[in-house]
Amino acid sequence: VGIYILIAVGAVMMFVGFLGCYGAIQESQCLLGTFFTCLVILFACEVAAGIWGFVNKDQIAKDVKQFYDQAFQQALMAESETNNGKAVVKTFHETLDCCGPESPMGSFTPLWSNDLCPKKDNIIKAWTENSNCHKKIDELFSGKLYLIGIAAIVVAVIMIFEMILSMVLCCGIRNSSVY
Fold it and tell me: At 165, which CATH number?
């Protein structure tokens, strides 16, 4: 579902960018006005999503941990090397520098130590040094929330400048003489 959402958002952003570029090239007030309206709607959606994400950060962290657990179980059960679960779990482990879920001893296998965890000499040592991924996910959502907020503010400022400049261009086209 997440991939389809990203594809849809990318398509909408490409369409909005096309409206802005083509409207500026053609000096069309209608296209620039539509571009401005789309930017306002996208800005409102981003603000709403940011507020929703901040309010529900605990639920989002819980969902991410549940997704990790499902991928981890899929990686342990699979026998093929082309398993998506392995790739997801490896990405979690490398990005967060962690090793395994909250209670890894119940699902200890040689595959886990050899393939899934970051390169360490000993899986027990790796697990005790890196802590488990559930703790790292909680730290990400509680300790690094300010970074997400800074990125959101930067995007908001850029979008506000885009809206201002599109309205200035639209008004400039309206006031220019027809040749």
Answer: 1.10.1450.10
pLDDT by 10s per residue, the chain, length 179:
778 888 998 899 899 999 999 999 998 999 999 999 999 999 998 888 888 888 888 888 898 889 888 888 887 776 655 567 788 888 888 888 887 777 654 455 555 555 667 665 555 555 555 568 888 888 888 777 788 788 888 999 999 999 999 999 988 888 876 65
Helix pair 29-55, 57-77: axis angle to 10 deg: 80
d(CA 142, CA 139): 5
- By residue range, what is the domain housing residue 67? 1-177
Residues sharing a CB contact under 8 Å with residue 83, sequence separation 6 or more, in sequence order = 74, 75
In angstroms, the Cα distances linking 32 to 44, 61, 84, 155, 161 are: 18, 39, 43, 20, 14
Does the CA dihedral 169-8-48-71 come out positive or negative? negative
Say how many domains are in the chain: 1
pTM of the model: 0.66
